[in-house]
Amino acid sequence: MTSSAPTRTQAERADQTRTRIFDAAVRQFSENGLAGARTEQIAEEAGVNKALLYYYFKSKEDLYAASLEFVFEGVRTASIAVLEANASAGERFLQIVLSSFDRSYSHPALQSLIHQEMVRLHHGEEHRMARMAEMFFRPMWDKLKEVLEEGIASGELIRVDPAQIRYASMGANVFYFLSAPLTRLAFGINPLERSELELRRKAAIEFLGQAIFMNREQGARVAARVLAATPMPENRENSLTPRKLRVIKKDKVRHK
């Protein structure tokens, strides 16, 4: 009688191989772009031969598209897990904003890929980002809207357009990192130094605790709890293998 264990082992090995390929591909594409990345280098870095690379992916373009889906799926899965955690709506929202800030710092390869695709999108090459928007961004934004509407309906969060809260909160993260080179020139400080990052991530969450919560004292407590539950990443991640973000597991906050 044949055991099914070897089949499972083979499947696990295949998954591990694909993950190594994706990690190597993302690094190469983020550093060199689609045109400049070399499949030989990707295969060497992943520890596979080029023939195996083309066994999984028909072309470099197919590998690039699959790599984008790989990293965006990791972000989507982790973000949905945070947004569905057993915590108040306001706490879940602060957690997702903090996770976004930390991801912008700790996954530079992901940010580089996003910037490259945004440039292509502005040039009218939207086919890849259109797919990413439909598969990954829309589900995250829809869930985020639900969370904000829940917080507003419960009286935890201020009664404003949920989209404006999202723009003001998540947009602040984007602006901080995009403007880092200009900030360095204008003020002589490096916004990407660890001390500056620690200061800004703490200030951002504390600000939201005061700005979007109906009860500022409650907002301050929630902000402190989120910051304590999510230490800043120690270093930039070299691997983009999807990892679940820290999810706060606790009883929902009771509104007094």
Structure description:
This protein has eleven helices and no strands. The chain has a single domain, classed as Tetracycline Repressor, domain 2 (Orthogonal Bundle), CATH 1.10.357.10. The protein has 256 residues and is mostly helical.
Query: For the report, how would you describe the main beta sheet?
Result: none
CATH architecture: Orthogonal Bundle
Q: What is the overall pLDDT average?
A: 86
Number of strands: 0
What fraction strand?
under 5%
CATH topology: Tetracycline Repressor, domain 2
**Ends: how far apart?**
63 Å
Shape: globular
List the helices and strands and how they pair.
Elements: H1 5-36, H2 39-46, H3 50-56, H4 60-83, H5 89-106, H6 108-122, H7 127-154, H8 162-178, H9 180-187, H10 194-211, H11 216-229
Which keywords apply here?
Tetracycline Repressor, domain 2, mainly alpha, 256 residues
Quick summary of this structure?
This protein is mainly alpha-helical and 256 residues long. The protein has eleven helices and no strands. Helix 5 packs antiparallel against helix 10.
